[in-house]
Every structure is written in C-alpha cells, then in structure tokens.
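Obj.: predict assembly geometry.
Materials: sequence records (below).
Method: joint structure prediction, all chains together.
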Amino acid sequence: MHFNLDRALPTPLVQQLTEQLQAWITRQRLRPGARLPSIRTLAKAQAVSASCVIEAYDRLVASGWLEARHGAGFFVAERKPGLRPDPGEPWGEAIDGSWRQFREGHEQLLKLGCGWLPVAWRAEAELAQAIRQVSRGAPEALFDYCPPQGLASLRLQLHKGLARLDIVAEPERIVTTQGASHALDLLVRTLLAPGDTVLVERPGYYNLYNLLRLHGVRMLEVPRTASGPDLEVLEQLLAEHRPRCLFINSLYQNPTGTSLTPKVAYRLLELARGHDLRIVEDDLYADFQDGPAARLATLDSEQRVIYLGSFSKTLSSSLRVGYVVADPPLVARLAELKMVAGIGTSRFAEQVVGQMLANGSYRKSVQRLRLRLGQHRARTLGLLEACGWEVFCEPVGGMFVWGRVPGRDFAELERLALEHAVLLTPGSAFDPQGRASEWLRINVAYGQDSRAEAFFRHAGRPLAV
Amino acid sequence: MHFNLDRALPTPLVQQLTEQLQAWITRQRLRPGARLPSIRTLAKAQAVSASCVIEAYDRLVASGWLEARHGAGFFVAERKPGLRPDPGEPWGEAIDGSWRQFREGHEQLLKLGCGWLPVAWRAEAELAQAIRQVSRGAPEALFDYCPPQGLASLRLQLHKGLARLDIVAEPERIVTTQGASHALDLLVRTLLAPGDTVLVERPGYYNLYNLLRLHGVRMLEVPRTASGPDLEVLEQLLAEHRPRCLFINSLYQNPTGTSLTPKVAYRLLELARGHDLRIVEDDLYADFQDGPAARLATLDSEQRVIYLGSFSKTLSSSLRVGYVVADPPLVARLAELKMVAGIGTSRFAEQVVGQMLANGSYRKSVQRLRLRLGQHRARTLGLLEACGWEVFCEPVGGMFVWGRVPGRDFAELERLALEHAVLLTPGSAFDPQGRASEWLRINVAYGQDSRAEAFFRHAGRPLAV
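Observations (raw structure tokens):
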C-alpha cells in the first residue's frame, strides 16, 4: 500500500488521501469487515500528519465506505446501494480541529485534550436506573413537550442545590437549556446585537468565541491570571470600550484550571457596578468544587450576574441538560426564544436529571468524581513536573491543567502525541483569534493512562540532574 | 371568594387577579394541598376570561404559590423559604396564547387546538422498551456527546426510510436536529440574513412566523388552497420580489390539513427552477401518509428542496429528534452551527429512535396511529358537518381540520369552548400578521371526546330542517 500524495498539487492532501484510499479499497477488492491500518501506521507510512489520516477516515465513514467500530478502529463497510462514491467536502478544513474529539471512530486514541470525563468514570448504574424508573413512570415524561421554562420539578431541585452554594435562585428565576452552550446561544441572541462589544477571557472556551463570532459580536480579551481575570486590563477596557458584558468561568476555568480569589471576585463586582457591566458566569464545573470557592453569583446583590450551570460534565453529555439563572424578565425572554428556536428542551432528560437530584444519587456520584479527580490531578501534576513540563498554575479543582514545554510548538507536540496514540486539542483553539500557542489543555482524568505518561516523558524536557 | 377586579386600572387584569389570589390564599390561611377553584368556575365567578385565570394560575405556579397536579387541577403549594411573593411578569401578554398548550397544569382541559396526539395513543410499551434497551447497552449512549452530523446509525436508518418515499438521502446528506423547529432555526440562521424576503403559506405554522420575525426576515404570504399554495399569487410574488426561499408543508398542512396535488407540486418545482428559488419542505407528518402523496423532495432532481422530518408527532415530542436532508456543503454548515449553538443533539435520544427504526417497532406503531387517525378524522368531519360547521377542505390524512362557524369570532368560540373544558388555539396564531380569524385548527384525535362534541354542537349552527 503506497499512495502518491503530492503536496505541490492544488488538491488538499486530505482529499488526495481520501480518494486514493477509496481507489485502493476498490482495487484490492477489500471485503466488508476488512480492517484498515491504524491512524498512526498509515500516517507514518505515507509521511502525512495523523490529522490528515483522521480526516480522511472520517470522510470515508461519512460517505459509507468505512465504518468505525468502538475501540477497534476502522473497517470496510457493507456498501449500500445509492451511496455516492464521493461525498464532496463535508467539513471545512477550518473546523476540523475543534470537533475532532466529537467524531465517531477515534476511540482507540486517548482523548487527553478533551473537555469531559471518561465514560468509565461516570455513574452508569445510577443513571441507567433513573432512566428505567422514568420509563416506567407517568407516560408524559416519554411523550410530552416540556413547558417553556423547563420542568417545574427539576427547577425546584436546582433551586435547592443552588441554595447550598448560597445562590438565591427561586424556580421562577431558572430556565432550563440543552447544556451550557445552548444557554450561551440563548443569551447571546437575547442580549447582544451584531457589532456589540463584550469581554472574554484569554485563554478561554473556544465555542464561546465561535458563537460570538457567528453573531458578529466584537471580543475584547482579558488575560486570565492565576487568580482570575487581569483586573488592570479589564478596568482599562471597561473605560475605553464600555462593553455590554463579560463572559467568565469563575471556578476551574477552561482551559487554565484557575479559580477566582475572593479578592478578585469582589473587585470584579465593584468594577461591574461602576461600569454597569453584566456578567455571564458559566459555572459548569460547580459540582467539582473541592474546598472554598469565590463565586460571583453568590456575592452578587443586584442581579448583575447571569449564572449558568450544566450536567454535561458531571453526569451526562448525552442527555443535554443545563440551565440559566437570571432575573424573571430575562428568563421569560430566554424561554420564549427557546420555544421559538426549537420548542423547548427534552422533558424525558429533565425528568431523569430531576429524579437523580431528588433521590441523592447525583450528589453521591459527584462526590466520587471529585475524589477521583483530586487524585488524578495530583498525580498528573507530579508527572508533568517530573517530565519537565511547565504548568500555568496548579489548579485546586476541576479537570484541566494548562501546560507547555517551552520551545515545543503544537505541530511537534501533536506528532509526538500521535506516536503514543494520544489526541490533543491545539492551544490555538483557546485563543479568541486562533493564534498559535505552545500551551496545551491537559485533562487530568486521562493523565494516568500509560499513553499519556509516555507522551509527557517523550515531549518533556526533564532538568538535567 | 370575591375579588375586586377593575378594568379601568392601568394594572392588567391578569396581574390584579394574580395578586388578589395571593392575598386570598394568605388571608384564608389555606394549607398546602388545598384545592383552588377550577378555571371555569373562577372565570365565571369573577366575570373574566378563562385565559386570564389560566395565566394567573400559571404565574402562581411559577412563583411557587400553587402547584399543578396532573389531571386534578391547581393546589396550594408547600411554601419554600426564599421564594419571593411576587414573581413580577414572567410572561409577556403577547406570547401567552401560543405556549399555553405547553404549560403544566392544564391537563383537565381538552387540548382540541393542540398540534400533537394524545399520550394515550402513543407507543408507550415500545418506546419504554427501547429506552430500557439503550440504558442496558453500550454506556456511550448514556454519556457521550453526539457527533456533529448526528449518530451514524440513526442517519443510516433515516436514509433507508426515505428511500421508501423515493427520496434520495444518503447518510452524508442528513444532519440530525432536536425536532423540526430546531431544524428551521438552523436553516434560517444559515440561509437567511435580516432583511431577506421569503415566502410563507397563509395560514401556516405560527412558530415559523415567530422565528422569521425574530430573525428580521420579511414574509410574503401565499394563500393555501385545497390543492396547495395559490400558484398565481406565488408567481406574481416571485416576479416582483425575488424571495430567497419558500417554506411549505406538502402533506396534511398545519393548520388546514390540505395536501399538494401532483400537478401543483410539479408546477411549483418548475416555478422554483425558473426563479432560482429554494424550497424548505417541512414534512413532519410524512409518516401519517395514507394513500398516494405528492412530495417535492421526491420530484426534485436538482437539490433545490431542503427536506425536514421529525419524530415529535409520530413517536415522542419529549425526546426531541428530527433531521434535515440537504446538499453536503449545507449539511456541513448546519452541523457546524448545531455544534456552535449547543454542542449537538442528544446521543441517547438518537440511539433510542434509531433502535426503534431498526427493529420495526416504530413502523408498527405509526401504522396503528394512521388507522386510528383515519377513523377519528372521518368521525370528526361527520360530527362537524352535522353540527353545521364549515370545513375548509376534507383532509385525506394527518391530524388537522380547519373549520369555522361563519359569524362566530374567536372570543365567542373560546368562551363556548371553555364552558365545555375545551382549550382552543386562536386562528390568528396561524396568520403571519396575527390577524383575527374565525377559523379554528381542530385536532381530530381529540374530536371524539364528549367535551369536543358538546362544544361542536353548542357552537355550531345546524341547518334548519
């Protein structure tokens, strides 16, 4: 198996590889079920990047030539009549990076750069039980639309849970969403118009940047420090630009893992008051909280903070359940948009989550996760240190460590990672302008895997003894 | 119990009633669990509209004063500490009408005007079984995000099902959505800019109007006739305005129940070709098809038709599963927006629907629904005729009949309906401009209920014998 891939051609390498793989499968008369070479093997053999192979395989899956089998790799698919041989360009090159972690068929790679916990950590027995209970309960949960603001029983449980964080959130101040990104979309569409200016953290959540860009909103960047946003820069931007709002993770920020100190949190609210700034506090790692924490929504006394939560990180990314806490007029507008743009959320999913909140199984499962995350975080930090990695800040909770090996750029890191079957997310994804970065988001839940260890060692620069 | 409601005050009646109900509950020291008067009783006693009572009760539920118990009415709730006595105005008056059918607590009213089938008709055993099977299967379905285009196994089933309707839709031409309204939202955001002009049917789907209005899109109205859109008007609008696209239900249109004739369908595609018009064919009643049908996506040979489907009407509105069929570049843009605006759909829900498609239980359950709908449609049409109602057109399939009693306006119909515990949706909701209408959307699935019969008789004007 050798392909003639020519970098000088105007046809992108991915497309050349895709087409030559198709031709090869046909020429070799490969039968359905025949296994394709692993991503690493093929990348090495053809001297292309692993990303290129991943993308070619993805396209062949999308067009029905291959199928991805969980944990086992890629196989020739049963050919369906009516499938066209060439699916065209299903994905723009620009967006490949961000969603690769979400595609099917990469289960054999370790998702060290991803933003969620391994399936093996999750509360499988508890969630499956709650699902079965709901399936045996009142049939409305299986069939009916959800009310505009979300299921009242879930909102009551959320209200109780938030009271434990000292956040006043009566059920009528809550609207449910399909996770935090859906919440952000509803907020951006409701609060902002194209041309508006907002503050975002740098580095920060790439999909928030995508969303704001899509909506034509201008982003002002506030550097994230170990104790929260850089207040000097923030104050200057507030004075110069009068932005509409600030988007922030207070706890265990994505991607740096840093948390607000109480002093920064307090001063941030003072600045917000002085400049009439609204704050969107995306607190989706709230239930990973270990020890004390400074939350803006807890300190806020004037409904300046719009608070977001989600169950995607702590319970299930599959169910799509999150929520927004805001003043009732804004909640009404968000609920209206939620109906207009999709006739609401899933009653079934909300019933399942509400039940796990009510019967305590959610609380117990996040206790377990916290403990396990803490152990993995400590070990991963130790390992990174031993391997000569630089860490932006030692996080006190959550999933993420922001690390680098000074002098190693992403292309080099990715090459080394794929040699060890490790899938990274580029640091540039966490920059509002997509600027190249040496920094990597490391998900500590995957940091104990031998593939991650080998990658850390191989890429690191241990101090000479 | 008597309240001083004063129409001369600037405070809306709903708010007066809400506040006086609160005061009354407090004054009477009503205990948690005490039952409130029925909507009809209270409306009659206070000489206000039933809508006013419904809205007041809804607000009191939202603020925690009352709770709605399924099928039993409204009761004083256990007071939660921290609940504010006055929730303000959670819902704008303007939007009350549209979403009333979606709120909790109106189960004692017959939803004759609603757009879905009764829970009792649904495939409860089959869906519950599929849910339990998925809960026992691979844990990825419970926990993981869904790939951007949707689960490959579901798209394969959709591809097979559409082939039976003679629609060519390879899996790579399909992107899943959270139902048809979410699909419409993705399409509007991807294809249209504020200020663009599109064609919509009149009467038509109110939430499509909401969505287009929200997006600042100008609507040109094409009257719906018994055989499809009025082609003369359409041709004139095409020539004068060069609209970007047409939104249409080909089969069993919402709300008129009418279907395209083959001749109209063919001519429509000719016109679309001549004026380079795209067509968004929302075919969410496809699986109710009884007998032959003319579908644009079947006839379309140049990928001019964007096709939408949903399982909300035929299987479950709770799961939120639908899809779009389009050319691969548009599918890629829709999938990208779907990720940016909410990190995709529910893998769990897609796995459940995919399973029911694969094992045949979905097909069997819609066969039952079709049969039952056909019987109810025939009987409801007979009843309406006997009661002196005028019907826009006798539908050959689907849920809806568009009927009126000439000379009776909506206010009068609603009053009569609520006397019989029947909840209507105003005809004005199906007009792009919200113009008053004598016409009512009648959901035949509820037409055999004795409350509906009593309403038809009471409101009708039988011919003198």
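Conclusions so far: Chain A touches chain B through 87 residues (CB under 8 Å).
To do: check interface contacts against the pulldown list.
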